[in-house]
Amino acid sequence: MTTKMTNFFLLLLLANLMLVSCQDPSAHTELPYEGPPKDHIISVERAQEMFDAYSQRRLPIIKKYEDSIASDGSKFEPTRYAEYDLKTIKQYIAYIEHEAMQANVDINTLRFYLSNYPNSDKFPNGDVVKYPRRNSFFVVPTMDYEGKNVGFSIEEMDGKYTAVPINRGASAQEGKQNKNQTDSTGQMNEAGFFMSNNTMVQGGGTTSLILNEGTVSPPPSSIDFGNNN
Fold it and tell me: Where do the structural domains in the chain lie, given as residue ranges?
């Protein structure tokens, strides 16, 4: 191989190495297909049984209570499901993985909290309540913290992304004392300050990772396992 040809291949190799090094290490990549998740897929028959059990054991109680407190005499229809389009779910996964990587923390699980929209047109901060009185859920990513699996958000502390537990029950004074106590991984050493508001990005540098605001039904109704009775 001539010297000219050798130099050409060396330049080509150098260019490829530079291209790889410039790629965003936090970019989300989909996992390779490995079949269904083990022990997590249920049959249609089991889903139907569980759906029917909820219809028989929970719906009547919810309807009776909500109807009893409705001052206008309106009839309440309990939520049967909430849904997101697939693009939103993929975007959410990419988002929380990116934020977790910035804070150098591993996501353990996604925790689904059952919830209820308030019986109001607006939240205290002025945001519109999308589904007043309706049942819903929100999703919280979790991490390891002091031997426990806890939900977390991201805070910027001294210019550094830090994963902090959502449930922080210490006093405000303890919070001021512990705010700067972070280890080399960017995780908190002490859960010592009040939980911040769960807006997307706040003036204090808090980033929420909580997913909500899907579409709940009914109405409109498109139930896969039967009617709402």
Answer: 40-78, 82-219
